[in-house]
Amino acid sequence: MELPPGFRFHPTDEELIVYYLCNQATSQPCPASIIPEVDIYKFDPWELPDKSGFGENEWYFFTPRERKYPNGVRPNRATVSGYWKATGTDKSIFSGSKHIGVKKALVFYKGRPPKGIKTDWIMHEYRLIGSRRQANRQIGSMRVSLLTLYSF
Questions:
Q1: 3-class secondary structure, 133
Q2: What are the residue boundaries of the NAC domain, all occurrences included (predicted)?
Q3: CA 23 → CA 20, 26, 35, 138, 146, distances in Å?
Q4: Considering 4, 6, 40, 71, which has the largest number of Cβ atoms within 10 A of its Cβ?
Q5: 105 phi and psi angles, rounded to 5 deg
Q6: Which residues of 102-139 are buried (b: 16+ CB within 10 A; e: fewer)?
Q7: How many Cα atoms sit within 13 Å of 140 on the Cβ side?
């Protein structure tokens, strides 16, 4: 999607959760169809800017959250030539006083753990807060995350 001159997509964390991730997870239309659905773990981070319709150093994607093990809870964050590693603590996202989501920072490492080489690629993962039953109803049995990818 081409954005008009001067347009900047710079939503707050709350706006990303309320107007985009919640809508996507419940199959409702988003305010604007500017965030593509891409399984980002099938690509390395430097390949992803071409999968987005806009952005220079910041890109947004909806992506499925797949588990590392069928009966486990850990997400699989491996890519073709590396992996995303969580860093820091999760940040709670609120709408008023209601806890609506979580933001997690991840850094991309080339190679395989524990000998991966840290890169400058950073990703923020947004997840909805809700019961497991609600999470399993989202888009069938697929859980969805909204991701913001940064390059430096």
A1: helix
A2: 3-150
A3: 5, 5, 12, 10, 11
A4: 40
A5: -95, 140
A6: bbbbbbbbbeeeeeeeebebbbbbbbbeeeeeebeebe
A7: 3
Q: Which residues pair with 94 in a beta bridge?
A: 99
Chunk the chain into consecutive blocks of 10 residues (it has 152) and report each block's average pLDDT, rounded to whole numbers: 78 94 90 90 93 85 81 83 95 96 96 96 90 42 67 52
Query: Could you give the CA distance from residue 39 to residue 48 in angstroms, rounded to a whole number?
Result: 10
* Distance (Å, whole) CA 8 – CA 71: 41
102: its two tokens? 């979580």
